Amino acid sequence: MSTTKNNLLTPDKALKKRYRAEKRFQRMGIFAIFISLCFIVFLFTTIITDGYTAFTQTYIELDVHFDKKYFMEENLANANFPSLVKHSLYAMFPQVKSRRDKKMLKKLISPAAAYTLQQMVKDDPKIIGSSKKIWVLADDDVDMMIKGKINRNLNNQNRRIKDLQLAWIDTLIKEGKLEKRFNTQFFTSGDSREPELAGILGALAGSFFTLLITLSLSFPIGVATAVYLEEFAPANKWTDLIEVNINNLAAVPSIIFGLLGLAIFINFWGIPRSTPLIGGIVLALMTLPTIIIAGRASLKSIPPSIREAALGVGASKMQTVFHHVLPLAMPGMLTGTIIGMAQALGETAPLLMIGMVAFIADVPASLTDPAAVLPVQIYLWADSPERAFTEKTSAAIMILLAFLISMNSLSVYLRKKFEIKW
Amino acid sequence: MKIKAICAAGALALIMSSPAMAARHYISIVGSSTVYPFATVVAEQFGKTSGFKTPKIESTGSGGGFKLFCGGVGVKFPDISNASRAIKASEMKKCAANGVKEIVEVKIGYDGIVLANAKSGAPLKLSRRDIFLALAKQVPNPAKPGELIDNPYKTWKEVNPSLPNTPIEVLGPPPTSGTRDAFVELAMEKGAKTFDFIKAMKKKDKKTYKKICHTVREDGAYIEAGENDNLIVQKLQANPKSIGIFGFSYLEQNSDVIQGSLIEGKAPTFEAIASGDYPVSRPLFFYVKKAHVDVIPGMKEYLDEFTSEKAWGNDGYLADKGMIPMPNAERSQYKADVKALKTMEMK
Fold first, then answer.
1. Residue A359 contacts B where some CB pair is shorter than 8 Å
2. Residues B121 and B233 grouped into a single domain
């Protein structure tokens, strides 16, 4: 018996080397996944730790006496509500006498308090003359203080909340007249320059209207294009050219679509700036290639036997496509559409060109009202000087991410549910 | 069939919305990102109390704002343009060419430009000459008077022996920003003028003079940090040795973490800027298209709100947001001009 050097059962040097190379490669892969997971965890923890506080807001209880002297004028809306707030506050701290201290005291309450009272009087004018305990919004600086985002141990000069104000806040807390509540305002109002008043609803409505336009334009056009190119178009130079162009368009930077929108839709067609209508049209242009490419891929994946069977029993070309091929391809097309929509939801660059990056306080009610969208709102808040906008920014990011994640999960679900293995 | 229905719905939506294009029932404002935080406060106050729609305000930068504003007369074009500098003659010409012949200029107050660093570092005492020497692309050669060389300074101490021995690292706005325009004009140009031969150049060769005074170095000591001033504040906290350039309102909102440098011995405080003692401050404006005043609902009321004492007065809410009010006499002058809608002379 001769002993061969290369026995399959006793590994030799070269084999060991190959095994090692494989192990090394796997380890590198795991390491890469680990790094990306770290980044995601880091991203989410910073956003959530910065932003979760935005879902509560500090309120202060005021004893308001709706004195008749404030409501002498015919028009109740013209009454001096800020002064009513001011004097209610002074009545709670009778020891505050000097003008300077009074001014500091006034700063504990948000300017929004006056709007709250105005609304109350408008809803029920009978409360004039009575006294009421009302919870009103605290100023954003007070709110930051309560949430621990202003260091109370800094020396008096460097702090936005001064020692005197701190003492008042502590008194209010002791008397149970200051508390944190769930921030419903954040979900029910539009943008504001007062952080305590700012809400996300305006941007949500804007995003909704914009995506509505995008969907109603890009889905039918995209699907029709995909069906024609895949099922009907003759294979010649022109279809090749169109195909190459569609693939190229999918890779064009989105700001280009914004420039196109500005030049054609606004300057030439005269569609009003800053509206969901123009935003939706521009974003539809941007998502069209995605939908067409996804649609064609899913049509391609339908086996030819389906078509042949349909044609074989006498269906026309059109009947084959619309009765058999398209329904089977629909889940894949919907997945592509949802991904395209999610992309459109997170887009800001093209909107910059068409005036949707703007301060818009009113919640849009129609397609032609000026509107901002979610990512634009995030950008605008990140740019505001007030400290309290930092948490609002993170909260808005959380909401945007929640929408994106749910849209993407929906597409995964659709794919899993309706996917047919041939 | 479904697809047909969706197409029809899309088309219908387009048709239904077209009549709304004929008129605009809200004020459209564009312009400077420096004026934006002040104009938005007024707009919001106006929207909440007057019953008119809240004006729409786009932050496009002063130059971008004038470009849109001067596009023409009609609902397609903005009614008001905010600016952190006065309108240029070239812009007025463009306006006039497009039929915008009557413009009302409204000065609203002042804004200080501050150079600030983190509270963890020592406050700097700078002169405008130091700023010019530290940030200009070309500076006078210390060895050979009257000659310019590429900026050799790497640390503040090299610029001026009384300054700390830290590397020059300044975060500032990009050239598109009005803050940058004002900074080079008010700080660097004034600093350059302290050299007699550069000052003499102004008469002889204005173009070269401007180039020397207004060109910021590009070797990494000046970092363009974008228009997002909040980002600059965060970067300053991370690196106490660096200095940031931004508007006074950001210093005021973040006075617990950053401090303004003294310029010519003057600290950037509200009082020093209001009195004009602090050297690097500039006026803020907005420009109104007179032809739109009676067409767009709420224009007059918006102007009233902006020029009221409770907005731009000494104790007004704009002062709370960091804008420096004008002196009383100047305020009442501008208020009267706005009431009368006194238009600018077209050059």
1. yes
2. yes
Select from A94, A25, A3, A46 the least CA-distant residue to A401. A46
Q: What is the pLDDT of residue A411?
A: 87
Rounded Cα distance between B96 and B85, Å, is 19
Instruction: Provide the β-strand partners of residue B243.
Output: B170
Q: Cβ B21–A272 below 8 Å, yes or no?
A: yes
Closest CA to A229 of A213, A217, A215, A245: A245
Q: The dihedral of CA A9, A14, A17, A18: what is its sign?
A: negative
Considering the domain boundaries, does residue B8 fall inside one? no
Chain B residues near residue A158 by CB distance under 8 angstroms: 119, 255-256
In this structure, are B324 and B265 located in the same domain? no
Nearest 5°: phi and psi at A198? -65, 135
Chain A residues whose CB is inside 8 A of the B119 CB are 158
Provide the token pair at B207.
């173009």
Is B1 an interface residue toward A (CB < 8 Å)?
A: no
Mind listing the pLDDT tens digit for each residue in A230-280?
Answer: 999 998 999 999 999 999 998 899 899 999 999 999 888 888 888 999 999
What chain A holds in terms of domains, given with CATH numbers, is: 60-181 (no CATH), 201-418 (1.10.3720.10)
Cβ–Cβ below 8 Å for A274 and B58: yes
**What is the H or E stretch that residue A400 is in?**
helix A389-418
Rounded distance, CA B282 to CA B280, Å? 7
Q: B160 to chain A, minimum CA–CA distance in Å?
A: 29
Q: Pairing between strand B28-31 and B56-58? A: parallel
- Supply φ then ψ for residue B243, to 5 degrees: -125, 140
pLDDT at position B228 is 63
Distance from the B232 Cα atom to the nearest Cα atom in chain A, whole angstroms: 11
- How many Å apart are CA B218 and CA B199, to the nearest integer? 23
Is B125 part of the contact surface with chain A (CB cutoff 8 Å)? no
pLDDT of residue B121: 84
Which DSSP state fits B53?
A: P
Using a CB-CB cut-off of 8 Å, the residues of chain B touching A216 are 6, 9-10, 13
| C-alpha distance from residue A386 to each of A44, A144, B120, B224, B247 (Å) | 23, 10, 21, 22, 13
Residue B303 Cα, gap to closest chain A Cα (Å): 18
Q: How many domains does chain B have?
A: 2
Residue B139: give its domain's CATH number. 3.40.190.10
User: Residue B249's closest chain A neighbor by CA?
Assistant: A385
Closest CA of chain B from A34, distance in Å: 27
A355/A360 Cα distance (integer angstroms): 11
Is residue B200 within 8 Å of residue B221, measured between CB atoms?
no
Residue type, A50: D
Q: What is the pLDDT of residue A232?
A: 92
- Tokens 């091929």 sit on residue: A325
Residues 61-80 of A with CB under 8 A from B: 77
Residues of A in contact with B20 (CB under 8 A): 272, 366, 368
The segments of chain A whose pLDDT lies below 70 read 1-8, 73-74, 77-78, 157, 422
Q: Half-sphere exposure of residue B289, counting CA atoms within 13 Å on the CB side?
A: 29
3-state secondary structure of A4: coil
Q: Which amino acid is at A163?
A: D
What does the pLDDT look like over B298-316, one tens digit per residue? 999 999 999 998 889 887 8
Tell me the shortest Cα–Cα distance from A245 to chain B, in angstroms: 24
Q: For chain A, say whether B211 makes contact (Cβ under 8 Å).
A: no
Contact residues, chain A, for B81 at CB < 8 Å: none
Token pair 């500076």 is found at B139
How far does chain A reach from its first CA to its final CA, in angstroms? Answer: 54
Range(s) of the domain holding residue B324: 23-110+283-339
Coil vs helix vs strand at A107:
coil
